[in-house]
Each structure stands twice: as C-alpha cells, then as structure tokens.
Amino acid sequence: MITRDSSGESKATAVKELLLGELDVSFPASALKSHNRVTIIADGLALQEGR
Fold this sequence. Notes:
Helix content is 25%, strand content 20%. The protein is built from two helices and two strands; from the N terminus they run E-H-E-H.
C-alpha cells in the first residue's frame, strides 16, 4: 500500500494532475496510477483546481 499526503493550495495543480492526468514520465507522481493500492489524503485546498 502507498499513502500520499498532500495539503495546501500549492499542491492543487499536482493533485489534479495525479487524479485526472495520464501516466507521464515528466510527472513522476503519475507512476502511482500503475499501483493497485494507493490512498491519497488531501485537504480541501489541495483538492481545489489550480489557479
């Protein structure tokens, strides 16, 4: 199991890319998409769309 913790508005773009983006070698966190047991813990600010 992998747990990824993200908080704060500065993480909003990265969290959005992780959740909605494709697997991409230029975004290392996207490798989490290929793991079958990932938990993402994010606060409300990290879940807002990047501004």
